[in-house]
Amino acid sequence: MAAAAIIIAFLVLGGGVIFVAFSGGPARAREAYLTGGNRFFKLVLPLIYLGIGIAVPALVIANGKAGEGAKGHLADVTPNKTETKGKQLFRQTCASCHSLAAVNARGVTGPNLDQIGEVTQQRVLSAVRIGGTGDKRMPSGLLTGANAEAVATYVSKVAGQTNP
Q: For the segment 28-54, what is each residue's pLDDT rounded down to a tens digit?
């Protein structure tokens, strides 16, 4: 809605510039405005404003769904207890480094888990155990046991699944 307000403001400003330009400059525009102007401006400017007043809200209403954002197929899926725990642990431990759309994580140092190809539970467990690919960018053993399993279960289920 803010975008529509900005667009309307620029269109009104543009209408004013057109009025000044077609009136013969600022002094003549002021005179035309104060004395009622000529017929062209008496008819055209209200039509422009009326058109903008109807067209812009109609376009915003017609495209309302696009402005709300897409709804991924995971939105209707209820995670089980392990996946819920994995989601929570991912947010606490992994989200600062890794990007994952399912939890709106925007990490900058680790790979984007939505774009690295197939993400299996075993691949995630291995990465957690050895520290990513073993290049020492990720600490090894950040999570162990049931916690590592929960994160691996969650990430393997949601990675790359939120984009249509």
A: 766 766 666 566 666 776 777 777 878
Domain that holds residue 129: 73-158
Token match 């667009």: residue?
7
Q: How many domains does the chain have?
A: 2
pTM to 2 decimal places: 0.54
* Better pLDDT: 86 or 64: 86
Q: What is the DSSP string of 21-69?
A: HHHTSHHHHHHHHHHT--HHHHHHHHHHHHHHHHHHHHHHHHTHHHHH-
List 86's β-bridge partners, or say none: none
Name the residue among 121, 120, 127, 115 with its Cα closest to residue 160. Answer: 115
End-of-domain residue from the set 51, 68, 85: 68
Name the 3-class secondary structure at 19. Answer: helix
Q: Which two tokens stand for residue 158?
A: 């949601």
- Arithmetic mean of pLDDT over the chain: 79
